[in-house]
Amino acid sequence: AVCVVGSINMDITVSTSKMPKQGETVLGEKYRTYPGGKGANQAVAAARLGSDVTMIGAVGDDVFGKHLLTHLQQEGIQMQGVEVLGGVSTGIANIIMMNQDNRIIVAPGANQHVTPEMIEKKKHIIQNSDIVLLQQEIPMRTIQYVIELAYESGVKVVLNPAPFQPLSKSLLEKVTYITPNEIEAEAINITQQNVRIQRKTIITLGKSGVQFVNNNGEKKLVPAFLVPVKDTTGAGDTFNGAFVSQIAKGASLHHAISYANAAAALSVTKIGAQTGMPSEVEVEEFLNN
Ligand code: ADP
Is Nucleotide-binding one of the keywords (predicted)? Predict the structure, then answer.
């Protein structure tokens, strides 16, 4: 079983052909809401690929929160670890889209209230999982707490260090795999880390694929699939959810990476983060063709 400890957001998008200047109001075009948050996105990716997923996180006691709980349940995610908090708002990402010039403001809301104290009450969920998947849209002290708890309980941990925040070496030592993209890998200064940490680092390189270190300590590149790209939002989230779903099933590192590379390639052929996430059948068909 997979446990995802992370953020749950509603993405609120407005497209416009003109960015408002300071003090200016413009009439936009389309308005839409999409379920989002790296935690929820990665949970959806893993659930669609057949994993038994339990989420730990929080939403506010508002319409977005209610909607997101129902939505994630419908995706087959077990939500008993998600709290509905009174007096705080559900996390939102306010996205202004103008051609390629996206501007985003995230208001974390309930995600900021996912504290070690909250996790302590739900320890058993983590301890009964095969693997825990984390991102960095909840407080860093919570991430530290979960990594230490999983480590002491012999549960594998995958840390997707996005968005980037500084991480201590001792914490990196306790994760099973860390999955930065190119920019995050540079921020972590992966090339300056010790061999043990380098060996557990899987770097996603967008359309260039995925770089990892194999069992013999050799750097390997898994090239990305050549696909018609529509929207790369959620590619990293699909990769992480898919990777963890495969590791949970006992797949080898190389197989899990190749599979996740295929799932992420499929996700960029469709618009939206969660909308584009493939099912198990879709990935199998893609890999057999
Ligand atoms: P993030 O979205 O977190 O920045 P990346 O851009 O590195 O992450 O993408 C994650 C993974 O998604 C890549 O390693 C690759 O497997 C897949 N991917 C991303 N962009 C493309 C693309 N243009 N074509 C095929 N696969 C892609």
Answer: yes
Render pLDDT for 39-93 as a digit per residue (tens, 0 to 9): 999 999 999 999 999 999 999 999 999 999 999 999 999 999 999 999 999 999 9
Q: Can you say whether residue 45 is alpha, beta or left, with left for phi > 0 and alpha for psi between -120 and 50 degrees? A: alpha
CATH of domain 2-14+29-288: 3.40.1190.20
> Is residue 237 annotated as part of the catalytic site, yes or no?
yes
Residues 6+ away with beta carbon under 8 Å from 38: 6, 7, 135, 137, 160, 162, 237
Burial label, 28 (beta-carbon count in 10 A; 0-12, 13-18, 19+):
middle
Of 164, 226, 239, 269, the one to substitute when testing ligand 1's pocket (max ligand atoms within 8 A of C-beta) is 239
- Cβ contacts of residue 232 below 8 Å, gap of 6+? 206, 268
